Amino acid sequence: MNRIQWLVECAGLIAAVLALELYAALAGDHDMP
After folding, report:
1. Which among 18, 14, 13 is positioned nearest to 26, based on CA atoms?
2. How far is CA 9 from the centre of its chain?
3. Confidence band (pLDDT; 50, 70, 90) for 1?
4. Exposed end of the chain (fewer CB within 10 Å): N or C?
5. What whole-number distance in Å separates Cα of residue 7 and Cα of residue 30?
6. DSSP assignment of the chain, as one string?
7. Is the model's pLDDT at 32 over the cut of 60?
8. CA angle, residues 14, 12, 30, in degrees to nearest 5
């Protein structure tokens, strides 16, 4: 297995989740029904 590729993919996935959480915290929480 290519550990570097695995680390890059893992970091990208974590970054995507953090971005979604940040967006939800800034734009979504007070607008939710």
Report:
1. 18
2. 12
3. confident
4. C
5. 35
6. --HHHHHHHHHHHHHHHHHHHHHIIIIIGGG--
7. no
8. 50
Cα separation, 24 vs 28, in Å, equals: 4
Q: Kindly report the pTM of this predicted structure.
A: 0.62
How far is the C-alpha of 23 from the C-alpha of 28, rounded, in Å?
7
| 3, two tokens | 């550990």
Side chain identity at 28, as an amino acid letter?
G
Alpha-carbon distances of 28 from 16, 17, 18, 19, 22, rounded to whole Å: 16, 15, 14, 13, 9
